[in-house]
């Protein structure tokens, strides 16, 4: 089966960006592009599986209470 024969996949929820952000590896971009032994999505897996797109979630750390401004 070739890549063009695959049914396009849209993943409605994945944590790839969060996993990369939390990684202790020095070059996470390279790991994503070249592939990793673990995890769910990287570029080789996405191409092989017919990944067409998805919703990527990442949550920034909360703002410190002292830095919040009051909104009337």
In terms of topology, how is this protein built?
Elements: E1 9-14, H1 16-22, H2 28-34, H3 43-49, E2 51-56
Parallel strand pairs: 1-2
Low-confidence residue ranges: none
Round the Cα radius of gyration to an integer and report it: 17 Å
List the strand order in the largest sheet: 1-2
Question: What is the β-strand count?
Answer: 2
Given the structure, what is the number of helices?
Answer: 3
Structural class: alpha+beta
- Indicate the proportion of strand residues: 15-25%
The string of secondary-structure elements, in order, is EHHHE
* Terminal-residue CA separation: 60 Å
Number of domains: 1
Largest sheet: 2 strands, parallel
Indicate the mean pLDDT.
Answer: 81
Give the helix level as a range of percent.
25-40%
Shape, principal axes of CA atoms: flat
Q: What distinguishing features does this structure have?
A:
single chain; 72 residues; alpha+beta; two-stranded parallel sheet; 3 helices; 2 strands; 17% strand
Description:
With 72 residues, this protein is α+β, with helices and mostly antiparallel strands. The protein has one domain (3-60). The protein is built from three helices and two strands. The chain has helices at 16-22, 28-34, 43-49, and strands at residues 9-14, 51-56. A two-stranded parallel sheet has the order 1-2. The longest helix is centred in the N-terminal third of the chain and has 7 residues, at 16-22. The relative contact order is 0.25.
Brief synopsis:
The protein has 72 residues and is an alpha+beta fold. It contains 3 helices and 2 strands, in the order βαααβ.
């Amino acid at each position: 089966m070739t890549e063009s024969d695959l049914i396009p996949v849209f993943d409605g929820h994945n944590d790839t960006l969060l996993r990369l952000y939390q990684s202790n590896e020095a070059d996470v971009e390279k790991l994503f592009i070249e592939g990793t032994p673990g995890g769910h999505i990287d570029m080789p897996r996405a191409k092989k599986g017919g990944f067409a797109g998805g919703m990527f979630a990442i949550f920034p750390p909360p703002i410190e209470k002292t830095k919040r401004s009051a909104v009337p």
